[in-house]
TrEMBL record:
Major place of residence: membrane
Signal peptide: 1-25
Residue ranges of the TM segments: 35-62, 74-95, 115-134, 141-161, 181-208, 220-238, 258-277
Subcellular locations according to the entry: Cell membrane
Protein name: histidine kinase
Keyword Cell membrane belongs to the record: no
Matches recorded under Pfam families: HATPase_c, HisKA
InterPro entries found in the cross-reference section: HATPase_C_sf, HATPase_dom, His_kinase_dom, HisK_dim/P_dom, HisK_dim/P_sf, Sensor_HK_Regulatory, Sig_transdc_His_kin-like_C
Organism: Nocardioides daphniae
Enzyme class, spelled out: transferase
The keyword Metal-binding belongs to this UniProt entry's keyword annotation: no
EC number: 2.7.13.3
Domain Histidine kinase: 331-548
Alphabetical keyword list: Kinase, Membrane, Phosphoprotein, Signal, Transferase, Transmembrane, Transmembrane helix, Two-component regulatory system
Amino acid sequence: MSRAGKGLLLLFACTLLGAFADASAAPGGAGMGLYPLGLVAVALLMVQGTARLALAAVAVVATSVSLWQFGVSLPLALTFGLSGVAAALAALRVLRESQGELRMRTEFDLLRVVVAANLGGLIVAVPIGLVGALSGVDEVAALIAGSFVDMTASLILWLPLAMRGRDAPSLATWPERAAQWTLLVTATLTIFATSFTTEFPYVVLVLLMWAGLRLSLLETLLQLIVVRLVITHFTAMGKGPYVGATHDRNLPDDLQMVYVQIFLITCSVAVVALNISSARARAESRREALAKADQVAERKLNTVFEALEAERSALEEMREVDRVKDAFVSTVSHELRTPITNIIGYTEMLEDGDFGRLSPDQSEATVRIGDNGRRLLSLIDDLLDLSRLRAEKMEIAQNPVDLVAVVRAGEQAILPRLRSAEVSLEMDLPPYPVTVTGEAEKLERVLVNLMSNAVKFTPPLGRVAVRLTQEGTWAIIEVSDTGYGIPEEDLDRLFSQFFRSSVSQEKHIQGTGLGLSIVRSIVESHGGQVEVASRVNVGTTFRVYLPT
């Protein structure tokens, strides 16, 4: 709905309320105590420019005709309509509506409403008094006082509806709101529909203050409107505590209504001020809570960022140390390989008698030198392979490889160790080729490392079994033994570099702790994976899965 449409709708509501008020008012007070001209100001707020002037003209006509139809003289009705609309326009000017959205957020905003309402009351009271005097109305002073107080009360009641309060939700739950509404309506009807003393209306004020503390501004204003309609209706009908409260003086009905309007002004100002204070306190409390939460969150985030930065720095340092270590190992290994190869070559020449015949003791010493040299060369080769793998420099050839042939080659390489260790070997190979893609030499090294470990960790008269199968798209090489087994707590670290299990240390079994790490690297570079299962004093089984 457009702003002009909203303004017309409010003006229509204003006219209906005025008609209801005048129809129920006492004859002498028609139009003076009940007509809700303050709602005209709210209607005028809905439009701008020329539309506002047009709506003001319609409001003058509607107000004047309504009052004239219900018994007010035509001069007074016309004056009341003109002055009432002028009062509404003046009130809007005081509120500086042209400077932006009207707000009801501080006590100063409420003070501006009170000033605007009093100005509107004067704008209505003065011309009404002049026209009344010229028309020969009795008790002109009462007419002026009634008009002033009535317009002031009307503007104080309706103007806050056009102003935006703090976005503070109601604190009350639905049961509390229902109880408060019920008590308020019941108390208002009971007190003003019957004869009570003038102290009882303040029960209504207390219930309205409950609304000011706990409810939103809009709901509080709605309760004030309901209370005003109920109170003015019953008072105009000659009921309630303010009827006859004129100290036995014969005063006009309009002046009697002044008591009611003063009470309503008191209720409106007190309750709206209380609601503003409550909303501001809640807003400040939320703001402080959010500020504290932000501070806590900022401290925690700073702590997290500092920890992450420290961790990142530590990780970078570890990577640098790792890189330097790999470079050192690679360089040293290359430098050691050449002299050790020469040592092994010369020992082989000595064993072959190229430098003369050796005595038995010399020959045995030469064999030991060669064996240890070959062990050292094997360690260097492991270090170089591991360094290439870690640097992602080990390239795997994409050739078809028959795993049956690879297993047979590994068997030939391990036979000398089987004889010296007095361990038997069982082979279970399929009669057909099992082909994978990769590099035969490196896969053979996987088999040799696994079978060598099986032999080393199996006591004499034990058994090592090698089995090759194919399941779906996977070729499975299984190497098992009946050896010492591996403790469960060592299984997670078994493939780590330089790790040697507690069994190898207890049994004094030689090794570098690199073999299984190289096995896993080679298998994973072929797109496969390695699994291990072991029980202490029962045996160990390694399974290598390679895609076919």
